[in-house]
Amino acid sequence: MKHIKQGHYTGERPLFSERELFIEDTVFTDGESPLKESADIRLENCVFEWKYPLWYAKRIRARDCTWLEAARAGVWYTEDVSLERCQVEAPKNFRRCNGVTLRDVSFPHGEETLWNCKDVLLERIVARGDYFAMNCEDLHADGLVLYGNYPFDGVKNAEIRRSRLLSKDAFWNCENVTVYDSFISGEYLGWNSKNLTFVNCTIESLQGLCYIENLVLKNCKLLNTTLAFEYSTVEADVCGTIDSVLNPSGGKIAADSIGELTLQEDRIDPSATAIVCRNKEEG
Predict the structure, then answer these.
(1) Rounded CA gap, 147 and 166, in Å?
(2) Is there a contact between 71 and 48 (Cβ–Cβ < 8 Å)?
(3) What sign does the CA torsion over 34, 36, 37, 40 have?
(4) How confident is the model at residue 279 (pLDDT cuts 50, 70, 90)?
(5) 191 and 174 in contact (C-beta within 8 Å)?
(6) What residues contact residue 71 under an 8 Å CB cut-off, 6+ apart?
(7) What is the pLDDT of residues 120-134, one digit of tens each?
(8) Beta strand 98-103 pairing with 79-84
(9) Sign for the pseudo-dihedral over CA of 162, 91, 204, 260
(10) Cβ atoms within 10 Å of 24's Cβ, excluding its own
(11) Measured distance CA(256)–CA(111) in Å, rounded
(12) Neighbouring C-beta atoms of residue 29, cutoff 10 Å
């Protein structure tokens, strides 16, 4: 493997289609696509300052590297890529990639990041930006801290653990998603999804958890969560109070108490949903 140390590259495609490189302490300044169509590349302590550094690449390992803000759309159409202890300041990173592993990575401008990717592993990620991880498949996240609206729109086959999401309209149009031991705050959570499960989670959401087919909540807390479950089929075991429930389509909702329960016979069949309030008679 060829070793490049303290390199400085400018211009377009300086290392186009290169193979088996160990690139260390190197800066890629002005010039697009420095490593386009490369393969078997190891990067350590490198800096990318301009657009499209890794497109159509394969088997990329980056550690302690930095993507500055102008290095936008940095990793697209790439297979088998991993980043560890990296700072990715640029938006629109990771698009239509397959086999993405990110550990201890920060995305301070994470708008439109991780779109249409498959086989994604995220560990200890901090991201700020809207539309994070749209249309991803086979995604596993642990320790994600996210500030941004509309994340995980259209995600399929996802598992998220020990995360904190400050996110309006999270998990829309999803299928087969389970969230464990996490905190989620943001209105309109989970609409138009199928097979959406929350386990040991704390949720705060105005008009959240509506229009869902097969919604499951196990040992969850719903803080300031109003007008919940509208037109959802739901199996919910909630600790504490649900402020209000509106027109669920069917299933069972159990909580210590429900502040306001609305079941409109002209819109749903009230008998299709069992309502259990543990601190008073069944409603």
Answers:
(1) 5
(2) yes
(3) positive
(4) confident
(5) no
(6) 48, 49, 50, 51, 53, 89, 90
(7) 999 999 999 999 999
(8) parallel
(9) negative
(10) 17
(11) 39
(12) 15
Q: Quick check: 118 and 96 in contact, CB under 8 A? A: no
Phi then psi for residue 243, to 5 deg, are -60, -45
Task: Identify residue 267 by its one-letter amino acid code.
Answer: R
Query: Distance between CA 275 and CA 55 in Å, rounded?
Result: 53
From residue 252, alpha-carbon distances to 65, 88, 151, 274, 278 in Å are 50, 44, 28, 5, 13
Q: How far is CA 64 from CA 83, 102, 105, 180, in A?
A: 8, 12, 9, 29
Q: Which of 118, 211, 130 is nearest to 173 (CA)?
A: 211
Q: What is the pLDDT of residues 26-49, one digit of tens each?
A: 999 999 999 999 999 999 999 999
Supply the DSSP string of the chain, one letter for each residue. Answer: -EEEES-EE-SS-TTTT-EEEEEES-EE-SSS-TTTT-EEEEEES-EE-SS--EES-EEEEEES-EE-TT--S-EES-EEEEEES-EE-SSS--BS-EEEEEES-EETT-TT-SBS-EEEEEES-EEE-SSTTTT-EEEEEES-EEE-SSTTTT-EEEEEES-EEE-TTTTTT-EEEEEES-EEE-SSTTTT-EEEEEES-EEEEET-S-S-EEEEEEEEEEEEEESBTTT-EEEEEEESEEEEEE---EEEEEESEEEEEE--TTTS-GGGEEEEETTS---
